[in-house]
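Tokens as discussed.
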């Protein structure tokens, strides 16, 4: 094993954690660190400020640096930096899920041409090891499905909504005060973060290149306290699920949206900021990876693991061949309209005889069978009642057509929500 020089781009939460973990490692020398503000005070004991620079390109162009570690996030200038690093023959470790989802194909192709590796364990599930196990221990499996909770912020919000019977808005405010949610939470609560992660994870696990632009994405902002309560009464928990699977026609279904998860499914037990990935394949069956999906030290754990994997193989003629990208097939991705799911539908209807029959008639017209119909209380002052429906498996396009017709029916005051149900 050889001692290696590392250039670190970014010294925020994750970068600081990486530096703290590696400071006493005799085989790793942090030669240079790129930061936005050299004069900013940082809570890192023993930080050698002489190695700080505000020019990240000086790192990727430094001939003495063997591995570039990028933990700054975003696409620009990260894409230019990593392309330059690879062209200069440097191995790369990154935690940048957005960059990989949008530009992974070109980066991995370039890395193969230059005989270097790009490792990215931290970009998918923080401190949870998932890419290395899929590429190595599970390499003999044909993976057919992944269902995952990949965002701690949304999982925390949904957990607290369920436990406290409060609105999304109230819990979001609390999450922001505790530092679990950003001032602008859009990336988390609208599902962008999970979509980036499942795009790369599905590409690796299903061995087909997944296009982020074809990944259906829906966030949690429409989930109400009533939805949480009704789901619980019916034996479900609501989670933001990142899903990827291949059907019998070799069509790939990759999406992110809330789902009612049965209480018998292990994902229903994943609470607060914890993440989990359920992998189903042959011959292994079902395996679950769970743990901290973010945070300084958990994410640093994955970054450092990747650095050490490179360090231990850096002298090989072809370092880490199993960890390289060898995809030759673009996934034939299903449009959400062509998927088949069970559904939860919550409505507010006029409280009069025959309304449930009207709902059933509309659903039947669109080839939707109902599994259960519940009336959840009446409002005598407004003469309305809340009705909750669970359907049997139905085509998404049929559900959307029924949804539109229900919204336009005089007996339906409002269709409150439509949520897919995990089987």
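Sequence:
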């Amino acid at each position: 094993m050889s001692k290696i020089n590392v250039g670190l781009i970014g010294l925020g939460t994750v970068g600081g954690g990486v530096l703290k973990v590696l400071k006493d490692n005799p085989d790793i020398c942090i030669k240079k660190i790129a930061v936005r503000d050299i004069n900013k005070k940082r809570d890192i004991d023993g930080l050698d400020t002489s190695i700080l620079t505000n020019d990240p390109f000086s790192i990727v162009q430094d001939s003495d640096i063997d591995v570039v570690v990028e933990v700054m996030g975003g696409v620009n200038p990260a894409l230019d930096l990593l392309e330059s690093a690879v062209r200069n023959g440097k191995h790369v470790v990154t935690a940048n899920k957005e960059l990989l989802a949008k530009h992974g194909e070109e980066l991995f192709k370039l890395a193969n041409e230059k005989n270097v590796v790009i490792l990215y364990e931290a970009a998918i599930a923080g401190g949870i090891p998932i890419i290395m196990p899929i590429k190595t221990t599970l390499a003999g499996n044909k993976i057919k499905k992944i269902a995952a909770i990949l965002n701690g912020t949304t999982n925390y919000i949904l957990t607290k909504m369920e436990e406290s019977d409060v609105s999304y808005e109230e819990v979001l405010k609390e999450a922001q005060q505790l530092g679990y949610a950003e001032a602008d939470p859009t990336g988390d609560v609208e599902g962008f973060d999970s979509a980036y992660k499942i795009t790369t994870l599905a590409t690796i696990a299903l061995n087909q290149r997944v296009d982020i632009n074809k990944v259906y994405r829906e966030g949690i902002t429409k989930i109400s306290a009533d939805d949480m309560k009704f789901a619980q009464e019916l034996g479900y928990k609501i989670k933001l699920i990142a899903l990827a699977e291949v059907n019998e026609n070799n069509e790939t279904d990759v999406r992110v949206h809330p789902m009612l998860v049965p209480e018998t499914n292990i994902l229903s037990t994943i609470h607060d900021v914890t993440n989990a990935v359920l992998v189903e394949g042959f011959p292994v069956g079902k395996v679950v990876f769970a743990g901290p999906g973010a945070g300084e030290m958990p994410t640093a754990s994955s970054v450092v693991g990747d650095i050490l994997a490179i360090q231990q193989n850096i002298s090989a003629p072809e370092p880490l061949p199993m960890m390289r990208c060898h995809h030759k097939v673009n996934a034939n991705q299903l449009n959400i309209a062509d998927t088949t799911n069970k559904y939860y539908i919550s409505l507010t209807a006029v409280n009069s005889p025959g309304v449930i029959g009207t709902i059933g008639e509309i659903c039947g017209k669109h080839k939707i069978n109902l599994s259960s119909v519940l009336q959840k209380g009446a409002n005598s002052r407004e003469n309305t009642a809340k009705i909750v429906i669970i359907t049997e498996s139905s085509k998404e396009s049929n559900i959307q057509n029924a949804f539109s017709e229900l919204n336009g029916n005089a007996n339906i005051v409002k269709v409150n929500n439509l949520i897919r149900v995990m089987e």
